[in-house]
Amino acid sequence: QVQLVESGGGLVQAGGSLRLSCAASGSIFKLHTVGWYRQAPGNQRELVAQITGLGTTNYADSVKGRFTISKDNAKSTAYLQMNGLKPEDTAVYYCSWGTKWGQGTQVTVSS
After folding, report:
1. Hey, how many other C-beta atoms are within 10 angstroms of the C-beta on 47?
2. Please, which of 7, 39, 58, 111 could form a disulfide with 50 given CB 3.0 to 4.6 Å?
3. d(Cα 96, Cα 78) in Å, to the nearest integer?
């Protein structure tokens, strides 16, 4: 049984930073694409960043230059470093690993 557990969310002032972690356990295929998504109230879930098994990354235009996705295959953990946070980044952030999803972690950015 694969489980994903996100952590690292919280409340931060605009301009601040947070690092989200997504720890995978169980029979995880380490070369799967890992994605970070977010969903704000009243909005659809949107892709924030993605990293393939070969390390190719892809970012939403709204976070380019501010967020960085990475993955440590040895630890079966993915990360999302978020710098220069803005109030519009406020959302629940979810990680996906292949077809599996975590439970989400809340990120709130105050102005």
Report:
1. 14
2. 58
3. 10
